[in-house]
Amino acid sequence: MLRLARVVRISGRRACHFRARPRASRLVQQGVQRGMVQREADPDDARRTRIALTEEGRRIGRGIRGEQREVLSKALDSFTDDEARELARLLGKLADNWTK
Q1: Cα gap 83→60, rounded to integer Å
Q2: Which of 5, 29, 32, 75 yields a CA-CA distance of 20 to 30 A from 88?
Q3: Domains present along the chain, CATH in parentheses
């Protein structure tokens, strides 16, 4: 949920990833109650509701990303330059093939 940088529409193939739709609905409701996300009417389809991060949600997301960067940096401190390059290459390969 925190990765939402813009309004995201979940439909079609992406919707099948939500096997437990009631759980997804509860998570969204919790985000709304905590002021991290807001529901918006979809101007293109009245049957749908869009979910967008609030400013508070974006602030929390930025903080988490900063903490993750710090933890990752500490974990990579023991890597040699060659090891770091190899890891980057392998992660890039994984990312390139993730949806194939």
Answers
A1: 32
A2: 5
A3: 12-97 (1.10.10.10)
